[in-house]
Amino acid sequence: MRESILPLDGISAIILDMDGVLYTGNRPIYGAPDAVKRFRENGKKLIFSTNNSTSTRAGYARKLTQMGIPARESEILTSGYATVVYLRKRCPNARIYVMGEEGLKSELKLAGLKIVSEGEAEKATHVVAGFDRKINYRKISGGLHALLAGAEFIATNADSTYPTEAGLFPGAGTMIGALAGCSGRGPSLVVGKPSTHMIKIALEMLGARPRETVIIGDRIDTDVRAGKMAGIRTVLVLSGVCTENDVRKVRNTKMAPDFVFKSIADVVN
Amino acid sequence: MRESILPLDGISAIILDMDGVLYTGNRPIYGAPDAVKRFRENGKKLIFSTNNSTSTRAGYARKLTQMGIPARESEILTSGYATVVYLRKRCPNARIYVMGEEGLKSELKLAGLKIVSEGEAEKATHVVAGFDRKINYRKISGGLHALLAGAEFIATNADSTYPTEAGLFPGAGTMIGALAGCSGRGPSLVVGKPSTHMIKIALEMLGARPRETVIIGDRIDTDVRAGKMAGIRTVLVLSGVCTENDVRKVRNTKMAPDFVFKSIADVVN
User: Fold this and answer.
1) Which domains does chain A carry?
2) Which sign, positive or negative, has the C-alpha torsion A10, A16, A17, A22?
3) A38-95 pLDDT per residue, tens
4) Which of A229, A233, B142, B234 is 20 to 30 A from B155, comparing alpha carbons?
5) Interchain pair A178, B177: CB under 8 A
6) Does residue A75 contact residue A99 with C-beta atoms inside 8 Å?
7) Chains A and B: how many Cβ contacts under 8 Å?
8) Are A16 and A216 in contact (CB under 8 A)?
9) Do A177 and B180 touch (CB under 8 A)?
10) pTM of the model as a whole
């Protein structure tokens, strides 16, 4: 912990993880709307980020706004949108087989990227796998056929589990595991945190340099890790997945967050 | 290849892999009914074996009989039944969460083993995963909850793909991969070939010693490998998955089959 520098000293841009920082499921976390308002009043540029790829950016902007946290679509960064940015830049003519939910497909289509169906999976240049609560054998078969025909395997994110109010549920790691289990190949690229792709894209969207940027997240293994690897300041809040005990485990390691707060309300106070 | 010993010299018991040896999908392979008849006329004890766990032993006996290969239920060994034998012996009071098809559940129930549903998955002592064309998020969630609560992870088999007349489709490795991808744990035991469990159970069912037993299969990576590791004679037929090129690749290695034939018809001629 760097006691000498306050979390937001010299900071012009903030990457805010959403789930576990601003809300739990559909419930805003106490003080989150006020904290975001304060960031804006102080002129901070904001990105609201999530490894979840099941909804579009417009969907997240709506969700936040309805919770009393007004947000614009252009401020939202999902792992699905980050995948879109990556593909649009590197392979604008990609033919993509998607194993993911409608939100991910919509995001890819909105960017003008071509999606191929199960029946023509062999023609895909890329398989994009993300969190998919409607996973089934037919979808997996399409993915297998695309991979066997030589498509590149990209995952929006690799979270093993997905925390809900009813406990842990299978995350995108499940869909990756299913495809890897039949094809014998893992993804050549995982776009979401803890990969630094998400942070790099956030910095581009913010027009900010690493040293003037902070990430506020609730997970050491994704948010803090990605922040550390991208060379930005890291703030961990204990309102989501991680506990004080988790913080103790990484104390004096490279993964120790720069600052730890109970919740986002404490970051601004 | 041991040219000096004919494939069935000194052999009293034969383990016959089914798919790719006796039939392809629902079509018997030319000469298979006659070959099995000849084995029986020569007093050979037979086991019909498969890594597939989706049907019961009774179901396979019916399928073979309808193809002109009369077989008794007691001669059938599926990876599902082998799992039953393993569990009944080691953990007769097991509470099992099944991620597999109805045939696997039926086989477990027939043996008097207790099956727990998704809603009570946390109470499971074991998760048994097998090939499941009806894989879905709810089933995977149950498996995750059982594994997080400490259940032992057993797989009927780990075949990555499943050959059909329409090409390769995802095999049981898919279901294992999905559970491993969310739980972070792989199976502590894989019962089916190439593990030697199946062969050991076959030898018990046959009342035969390894040196008087042969396995006839169509896959080097499962049938031949399991046979070699269990110390029995191995015959590869080229009527299924493996080609002459695959045989060349393992020539002069430990995995070289003792004998290679075009099909089961040639084994008896």
Assistant:
1) 13-51+193-268 (3.40.50.1000), 91-190 (3.40.50.1000)
2) positive
3) 999 999 999 999 999 999 999 999 999 999 999 999 999 999 999 999 999 999 999 9
4) B234
5) yes
6) no
7) 95
8) yes
9) yes
10) 0.92
